[in-house]
C-alpha cells in the first residue's frame, strides 16, 4: 500500500504499474541519483584525493567533452537501425566500467582516457535514450519527456544531497563511495531497462540519406539555437556561485538557496508546462517565451551587486525563480521540436544531433560566461539577457520554416 504524503503524490504522477513508461522513468531516476552523487564531488575527488592540479582536471574534461561530441549522431543512427534499448544497455555497461576505473586513476593521462571513454558512452546513451523516449512516449512524446524530466530533476537533487554528506566527511573512502554509487546506478538503470521492450524504427524510406538529420537545415538551425540558449544552464550552476561570492553582499548560504529554488521550480512546473507544449508552433512560441524570461532574470541578477546584504538574497531568489521558468519553457520547446520534427525512422540520429548542439554549447559555456559576465560585470549580464532573448525570438520563424519543409 502506498504511504501518505509525498510518496502518494509521486506515485500518482507515475504511469501505471508495469508500463514501459513507468520502467523508463524509474530507470532514469536511478541513473540521475547516481549522477548527482558523482558530478557534485567529482572535481573535488580528482583534485584533493588523486592530487591532480585543477588545470589538468579542466583540460582533461575539455578534451573528453570535445571527443564525446563525435558519438551522438552515429549512435543515434545505430539506435534507429538496431534498437535504442540495445544501444543504451551497451553504453551503460561502458559507463559502469569507466566509473570503477576512476577509482584506480592516478595520472592525468589515465584520467583523460577514462573520462573520454565515459563521455563518449554518455553522448551515445543520450542519443539512444532520446529515440527510446520518442517511441515509448507514444502519440505524446513531448508530454512524456516533460514528466520524465520532473523525476530526473528530483533524482539529481537527491544525489546532490547525498554527495553533500560525503563532501562534509571529506575522506578518500567517502569520495570512493560516491563513485561506486554512480557505477551501481548504471547497473540499476540497465536492470530496469530490461522491463522496456525493444522498439525498432520503421523501415527507412527509399531515397533517404543515411544521416539525413545533418541535411535537415531547419533542424540543424534549431539545434544550434537550442545549444546556444543552453548557456543559461551554466549561468546558474557555474556563474551564480562566483557572482554571489565575489560581486554581491549576499551571505554564502544564498548559493544553496538558489540551487534549491532552481530545482524546485523545475520539479513543480516541468510536467505542467511541458504537457501544454506539443506541436511545432507551440514549441516555437515556447522558445521565444524562454528568451523573454531570461531577458528579465539576467538584469535582476546584475542588480544584486548594488543592493544591501539583507535585500540581495531575496532578489537573487526572485531572479533564479524567473530564470528557472525560462529553463522549463526552453526544455519544453526542445522536447516538442526535437521529437516533432524528427521522422519516426530517424528519431535516434535527430536526438543525437540535438544533443550535439547542446553539448557544444555546454563545452563553450565556461569560457563565454566567465569572460562576458565576470569580465564585464553587470553589463555582461545585460548582454547575456539580450543574447538569450534574441535567440528566443528566432524560435517561431524557425518552427514555421521547419513545418514548411516537412513531408
Main attributes of the structure:
407 residues, mainly alpha, Growth Hormone, Chain: A
CATH class of the largest domain: Mainly Alpha
Structural shape: globular
CATH topology of the largest domain: Growth Hormone, Chain: A
Which homologous superfamily in CATH is the superfamily of the largest domain? MFS general substrate transporter like domains
How would you state the average pLDDT, rounded?
84
- Which strand-content bin applies to the residues? under 5%
Tally of contiguous helical segments: 16
Distance between the termini: 49 Å
Main sheet: strands, sense, barrel: none
Number of strands: 0
Question: CATH architecture of the largest domain, please?
Answer: Up-down Bundle
Radius of gyration from the CA trace?
21 Å
Compact overview of the structure:
Helix content is 79%, strand content 0%.
Molecular structure report:
Helices cover about 80% and strands about 0% of the residues. The chain contains 16 helices and no strands. It has helices at about 5-15, 20-50, 55-70, 70-80, 85-100, 110-135, 140-170, 170-195, 215-230, 230-245, 255-275, 280-305, 310-340, 345-375, 380-395, 395-405. The longest helix has 30 residues, at about 20-50. Mean pLDDT is about 85; it is low at about 1-5.
